[in-house]
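queue> pop job 88
queue> type: inverse folding (structure -> sequence)
queue> payload:
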């Protein structure tokens, strides 16, 4: 809404290709305060806006650094009424955000765009994103199960809320890769699934569930490309 009220255009003008034209955002937007109510997406820290394009049954979005909110307000009180199923799904999204950004292609290995305003929102793994991603993984290991099991454990829900934002800073600069990319066809092919804990009048698959479904196979596949990074991610989750 902020983008299209600031720079009016056809809906698909800024939408990622190949569904949209993928035009870069022309300039700064109006101030935007983001107040998350789940502990998963990290959207209060990123320049990515995702939506369902119902006319073609596809999930797509817009990605540009100008979309980043001016301020994110992270308050665990906003998570008290989250059903446990939503805590689990959004928490698994945090988990995959952090691992994917930490194991993404290094920023020095990415192709240089023709001009600066064509730089993607995601730049590849880098030293700054690494810090946020690894710390988010440690917090997921420590607090996700507690947040799932007890809605009154405000410390756990608050730390998962914070982990979502921290992972958002990580992947909001480094990017994600195969698990998130593969979640799009998973989501678009759901026709009869009504998950517990979600009030909906149509079939859906929660985003975190669609992402984590293929994540184990993906990380087994990508581990050989950079074993050390995958080992460090596993260590952050408490493995030997």
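queue> result:
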């Amino acid at each position: 809404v902020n983008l299209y009220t600031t720079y009016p255009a056809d809906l698909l003008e800024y939408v990622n290709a190949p569904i949209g034209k993928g035009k870069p955002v022309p300039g700064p937007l109006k101030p935007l305060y983001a107040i998350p109510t789940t502990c998963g997406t990290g959207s209060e820290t990123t320049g990515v806006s995702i939506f369902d394009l119902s006319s073609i049954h596809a999930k797509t979005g817009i990605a540009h650094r100008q979309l980043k909110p001016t301020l994110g307000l992270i308050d665990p009180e906003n998570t008290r009424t989250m059903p446990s199923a939503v805590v689990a799904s959004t928490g698994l999204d945090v988990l995959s955000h952090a691992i994917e950004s930490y194991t993404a292609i290094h920023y020095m290995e990415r192709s240089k765009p023709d001009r600066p305003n064509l730089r993607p929102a995601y730049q590849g793994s880098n030293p700054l994103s690494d810090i946020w991603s690894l710390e988010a993984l440690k917090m997921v290991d420590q607090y996700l199960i507690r947040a799932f099991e007890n809605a009154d454990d405000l410390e756990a829900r608050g730390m998962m809320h914070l982990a979502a934002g921290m992972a958002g800073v990580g992947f909001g600069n480094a990017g994600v890769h195969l698990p998130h990319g593969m979640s799009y066809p998973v989501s678009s092919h759901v026709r009869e699934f009504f998950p517990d804990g979600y009030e909906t009048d149509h079939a859906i698959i929660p985003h975190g569930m669609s992402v984590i479904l293929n994540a184990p196979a993906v990380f087994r596949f990508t581990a050989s490309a950079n074993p050390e990074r995958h080992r460090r991610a596993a260590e952050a989750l408490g493995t030997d």
